[in-house]
Specification:
This protein is an all-alpha fold. The protein is about 60% helix and about 0% strand. Helix 3 (about 50-60) crosses helix 4.
Length: about 110
């Protein structure tokens, strides 16, 4: 891989990926993989880009979550504690039930796009 190095990486929500691909498709023709990715992203429930960015900021700052975990929460749209526990199952830092309930309450404040 001559000349290809990863300079920086950061997790971003699916809705942001979808937005980037849609903007790219306005000026360029999408290849097969990009089309498959766009079709895949369109199938899931999601928040708007603005809501996802606001949620990301709140989850990272208010709940001290890693950005990767915050993105998983935003992408998976957990509906109850069982769903949220699955996201935290492999996390080194443990979150108690009260914090998880607060996270679910925060998520309920935002509209989900079907």
């Amino acid at each position: 891989m001559i000349g290809k190095n990863i300079i920086d990486s950061e997790p971003i929500p699916r809705v942001k990926v979808k937005e980037v691909i849609e903007e790219f498709s306005e000026e360029n023709e999408l290849n097969y993989e990009q089309n498959v990715t766009l079709n895949h992203l369109a199938r899931f429930k999601r928040y708007s880009v603005e809501d996802a960015e606001e949620l990301m900021e709140k989850l990272v700052n208010d709940f001290n979550l890693r950005p990767k975990v915050a993105v998983h929460i935003i992408d998976l749209v957990p509906q109850d504690l069982a769903d949220l526990r699955l996201i935290f199952a492999k996390e080194p830092t443990k979150i108690d039930n009260d914090e998880m309930k607060k996270i679910l309450e925060l998520l309920e404040q935002y509209d989900i796009i079907e």
